[in-house]
Structures are given as C-alpha cells and as structure tokens.
Write a structure and sequence with these properties.
By secondary structure, the chain is of the alpha+beta class. 33% of the residues lie in helices and 27% in strands. Strands 10-11-1-2-14-13-17-16-15-12 form a ten-stranded antiparallel beta sheet, with helices on both faces. Strands 18, 19, 20, 21, 22, 23, 24, 25 and 26 form a nine-stranded mixed beta sheet that branches. Helix 4 packs antiparallel against helix 6, helix 10 packs antiparallel against helix 11 and helix 15 packs antiparallel against helix 16. The protein is elongated, with a radius of gyration of 36 Å. It starts with a strand and ends in a 9-residue tail after the last strand.
C-alpha cells in the first residue's frame, strides 16, 4: 500500500493572535483505485488538514493507481455544494525553473518520494512499509532510563495539579465533538502541548503490526512540533529504540535522557557526529504505550538546559522528577484516548446492530436492563413474513466461475428483503440461508402490524421483480400467537419465534411455487387487509382454496395478496373468481372446470386447480372435504 504524508508549517500571524506557529504532520493510507477527497473539512474529507486555512474545505480529489505507481491529484470542480473554486492551487516543483509552479489545469501526477504543495502543507507519497528516518539521539546513549507502570504513576501525586487541570479543562467538550480517530489524536496532541510547556514535540507513533522482533520500524501517525526547535528542522524523528522498548519490550511508560558521554555505554566507538545534537543540552523523551494491544504510543520529546554528563546528581534527579510529572500526564491522556476509542468502537458496533432493528426499538438498545427483560421469551400476537429465494444452490452452481458476482446478487436481494421489513417497523428475526424471516408485534403490540407486513410483502415482490416473475421468490404471511424473544443459546441475543403460526408461514410461502403467485397469506391476514383497505385501493386479496399444510392436522384457507396496481384478476371478474373457487371447494368440478377454461385460461392459480382435478379425472375423491395439497407444475424443480 501507499501513504500520503502531510506536513503543515503554520506561521504565526500578528493579525490573528489565536494562530500559533506550529508544525503538524500525519499520514493517510491510500485505498487503491479509489477517488479520495482532500480538504480542510475533517468531518467530510478522506484526507483532512484542518489546521491549514489556506486549503479549501474541499480542495482536490486524489487517486492512487498501484499499476501505474502514480497518484493523480486533481483540483475539484465547482458544484452546487461547492460553487466557488479553491482559493489556492496545487503547486509542484519545476526542475528547470527550480521553483514551485502551479500544476497545469490543476492536475498533476506524483510518484513515490515526490511531493506537491497546497497552501502551507507539503504532501509526499510514501510506501507504507517505509520506516521513519533515524533519530539523532539513537546514535548516542541514554544514561538515565526510567520506566513506570500505570499503577505506579497513579500513586505519584501531581506537583502542580492546577496547571494540568487548566490544560485539560476543555477535554470533555473536545472529546464529545470528535468523530474520527485522526481528530482524536490531533486534539489530544494539542492538549499535550498545552499541558507540557517544556515539550518541543509530541506524536502518536505505532510499531507496524507486521514488524518482526529483529527490526525496529516505527510509523509516525500524527505529530505536533513547536517552531524553532531541533525537531522542527527536517521533520520530527522519534527514537525507535525508546519506542520499541516501551511498546514491545516493557509495555509501560519509559523515560530516556540522552548524553554524548560514552561512560558505561561500551566505549567511544558507539558515538557518531550525531553527538553534536546533545552538546550543551539534555534531550529527553517519554514514550507511553496504549494498553489495548494496538502497538500505538504517545511520544513526547524536548530538551533541558545543561549537558547530562556535566550535571551533578541532584540536578539530574530534579530533571527526572519533573519529567516523571510529564509521564503521569501522558499516562492519564493515553487512558483517555483508549477509553474514547473504546466508546467510539462500541458506538460504531451499536450502529451496525441498530441496522437490523426498526427505529421504534432503538431506545431499548440504550437500556441494557430493559433489553434483557424484553428478550425473555413470551407469548405475543405476532404477524410473520417469510421470504425465500428458490434454487439458490442451483444458482450458485451455475455461477461457480463468478461466485463473488453471484453472491453479490443474492446479497442485494436479501438486503432488499431485510431493509423493506425494518423500514416498516418490522424486526428481522434472522437469515435462514437464502431466506429472511421478519415479524411484527414484538416487543409490544402494533395497531397496524398486519397492514405493515402486507405492505412490506408487496414492496418486496415489486423490488425483486425479476426474481418474482421468474418464480424464484415467494412470500408467506400469517398472524397468530407465537413465543417471541431470545430462543436457543442464552449467550446469544438472537430474537426468534416459536409456534405453529411460524411454521404455517413457511408452508404458505412454499405454496407460492405451486400456485404461481408471489405472495400467499392466511385467512386472518386477508381479513385484516380488507379491514385496513376496505375499498381495495392499494391492496387486495383473492381466495385460493382450502389447503392442507404439512404438519397441520386441519386445512386452512389460503389467499393471494397483490397490489391493486397490478391485479391478478380484473375487477369485473372478482366475483366470478370467488364463485369458481366455491364450485371447486364444493366438489362441483364440472362447472368449475368450465369456468376456469373459459374465463381464467391464463391464470396460474386456475391451472393449479385444474391439475388437482385432472389427478382424479375431474371427479372429487369420495372423502372430498374441499381441501387439497397444491401440486407444482410438471417439470418444475
């Protein structure tokens, strides 16, 4: 993968007292072949640089193309949402003129290691496997190394609690407004710089997940540097040795104070020209790892006056004592970052969970005690809807060479079913292979639950038109008493149903294939649909007959549900159809057959009734009670 590094150098503005000189840096992972928006708006941009007011809220679109090893940068066009063009253009370095020039037509191509500029920010394309350049202090020694656990730091009192509290007093409001991990890191680093005035730089660093123990790789995720300090020249470079010791080896807060003094370090051969970096001063750094296993850490660095090896022990101890206070503050802020990230992840998980629930039930998710009580199995008056995609195994076998594409088609159909149910205040009880079970009436009764289920079924049939027209999708709806709640394993919060009414829903759905109709409902559902829409302006039903469902001792009346916009039977034949089914039920098959073959020749239900009659040479069986098992068309699978 590739990453885009952004380094922003903000200059102090005498006209704006709130603008402080500072250097900010961060890296953004680039998604291959995806257009990513770049701008100042942290809430909407994929690549956000909120500190640079010379970058527009939406500045440009960048696209990383691995095949070409190039990043395309294109200034965004004007649009209704962004009617004005960006104030500043993209700049690139002209090798001939040896200066920055505007990218022609606002577009440029950037290779690895190359840069472009917008406003006060330099953007550079990197490989994500590249590690940060070496820190000068790693070429010296750290004669004083302190480490403390979180528990040990909690026992140490604040030397100046008022100052620390002042720096963190706005944290609650700051955290409440944060929406992204990047924003959290950025705001926390600002707090660090306010709470630790002797710090020259701070950063969120990370040891890459794939970094082997034998290597000392380190990624800079986000950093904040004061101007006119050693860290502001040439880019901030944390100590890899310290970071790996704190994150990978000791897993606790570590403090290092560096010195060019080779005493006890194995001889002068370890010293390099980097020693000049620490002459006359004592560079120090605190690295505090996150305790969540993420390999992240808060890294804070600065320097004190006086070279370590020239200081007396009392002065050295005073430096360590003061910096231990910084360790304590760093540990406190890391704990806050961990908690905020944990809450943020739980919030995102909750959002995912909520998608399977109607909005009317969301309030229960915020009340664990009420949710637990609600999940206790209880008898309810439930309206159930079952929708099945037929011949899924055959479909998958026929598309074995394009499994992802075929799975996407199935997934889209299942999503259509589920979203239609939840959009009408239903609950998705679960996916049964290539089918969806939805229901209404839980956790509390709903006055219009049968109507809502009927409208959902008609909508599903319409949205899955290709599936229903080809007979590959059927829907069944019933209404009655069922046990609803958490059924099965107690540690799984899976809401399900149990009862004959649920099994009948499955049986009616299976009969849609034999009758050749998309939706079949029970008698109770048909009755309530008629009450909800007495004129049949939107929804209608027609009787199919008295059917025998597998596992049920008594026959039940079955009805087709359909939209008034696409009637199964013309209005002027409604009464004739009902009369024809009565003839069939009463065993008057000669008259019934005559009606079906003259008035309803193309009707799939009529053809199903004819198959029943043909099976006994159009004579009712001796024990005929008007009920039957609808036979599927010959040759159907």
């Amino acid at each position: 993968m590739a990453e885009l590094e952004a380094i922003t150098d903000i200059q102090a503005d005498p006209k704006k007292s709130a603008v402080m000189a500072r250097q900010y840096g961060r890296r953004f992972p680039l998604t291959p072949n995806k257009a990513m928006n770049l701008g100042r708006d942290e809430g909407k941009m994929d690549i956000a640089v909120p500190e640079d007011d010379q970058i527009s809220r939406f500045q440009a679109v960048v696209t990383w193309e691995p095949a070409k090893e190039k990043l395309t940068v294109q200034t965004r066009p004007t649009s209704p949402g962004y009617p004005n063009p960006p104030a500043n253009q993209t700049l690139v370095f002209d090798e001939r003129a040896k200066k920055l020039v505007e990218a022609p037509q606002g577009k440029c191509l950037v290779g690895r290691g190359e840069s472009f500029w917008i406003g006060q920010t330099r953007f550079t394309l990197h490989n994500d496997e590249e590690s940060q350049h070496e820190s000068p202090v790693d070429a010296t020694i750290a004669p004083r190394q302190e480490e403390k656990t979180r528990a040990q730091l909690e026992e140490i009192p604040f030397a100046n609690p008022a100052a620390a509290l002042r720096a963190m007093e706005n944290l609650p409001n700051t955290i409440r407004a944060i929406t992204t991990e990047q924003a959290l890191f950025r705001q926390m680093l600002r707090v660090v710089m306010d709470a630790m005035p002797r710090a020259d730089a701070c950063a969120i660093v990370r040891v890459p997940p794939d970094c082997p123990p034998s290597e000392k790789r380190l990624n800079l995720v986000e950093y904040n540097v004061r101007p006119n300090t050693p860290h502001s020249q040439g880019g901030f470079a944390p100590s890899k040795r310290l970071a790996h010791r704190a994150i990978m080896e000791r897993r606790r807060s570590c403090l290092h104070c560096w010195s060019p003094d080779p005493t006890g370090a194995g001889g002068a051969t370890e010293l390099t020209m980097a020693d000049t970096h620490v002459h006359g001063v004592t560079p120090w750094a605190v690295c505090t790892p996150f305790q969540d296993g993420s390999r992240y850490a808060l890294y804070v660095a600065g320097q004190t006056s006086g070279q370590w090896d020239l200081l007396d022990k009392a002065s050295q101890d005073k430096i360590v004592s003061d910096l231990t206070q910084y360790q304590k503050i760093a540990e406190l802020l890391v704990g806050m970052i961990e908690t905020t990230l944990r809450v943020s992840r739980l919030t995102e998980q909750n959002k995912v969970i909520r998608r399977a629930w109607p909005q009317s039930l969301w309030k229960y998710l915020d009340d664990p005690a009420e949710l637990e009580r609600m999940l206790v199995p209880e008898e309810k008056e439930i309206t159930t809807l079952f929708c099945d995609l037929r011949n899924y195994s055959l479909f998958a076998s026929q598309h074995a060479s394009e499994l992802l594409a075929s799975q996407r088609e199935i997934g889209n159909a299942l999503n259509t079913m589920a979203s239609t149910i939840t959009d009408r205040d239903g609950v998705v009880g679960g996916f049964r292979g290539d089918a969806v079970l939805g229901f209404w009436g839980w956790p509390k009764p709903q006055a219009r639950q049968v109507e809502l289920a009927a409208r959902a079924a008609i909508s599903i049939a319409g949205r899955l038109g290709d599936w229903t027209r080809s007979g590959r999708c059927g829907v069944g709806i019933t209404h009655g008493t069922a046990v609803a709640g958490r059924l099965g394993a107690h540690d799984l919060a899976v809401v399900d149903l149990y009862g004959p009414v649920v099994n009948l829903t499955f049986r009616l759905e299976a009969m849609t294939k034999a009758f050749g109709v998309p939706i079949i409902v029970s008698g109770e559902v048909s009755k309530q649909v008629a009450e909800a829409d007495p004129t049949g302006r939107e929804m209608r039903t027609r009787v199919l007959g008295k059917v025998r469902a597998k596992g049920f001792p008594d026959p039940v009346w079955a009805y087709e549900l359909y939209s008034a916009q696409t009637p199964s039977v013309p209005d002027w034949l409604q009464e004739e159809w009902t009369a024809t089914v009565e003839l069939f039920t009463e065993g008057k098959w000669t008259e019934c057959y005559e009606e079906l073959t003259t008035r309803f020749t193309d009707d799939t239900v009529g053809k199903c009734l004819i198959r029943v009659m043909d099976a006994t040479k159009r004579r009712p069986p001796a024990n005929w009670d008007g009920s039957f098992v609808p036979p599927a068309p010959s040759g159907s699978e």
